[in-house]
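For this section, I looked closely at the sequence of one protein beside the tokens encoding its backbone, which the following lines show:
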Amino acid sequence: MASVTLSSKYQLSIPKAIREQLHLKAGQKFSLIIKGGVIELVPMRSIESARGILKNANPNHYRDRRDRS
């Protein structure tokens, strides 16, 4: 597990191995999600990068509003 230290300017540096594994780029934006005492950094992706992600998805058997009680 990688660890980082919060700087005096309240900044964190993401280790190179993680940046390369996740293909992160300088200037990339992140969403911060707080769950209890945990902070999650979620890379924000462009809508164009999601193109084709649902290709060949089968929409059958999804719940509909009328199926909810």
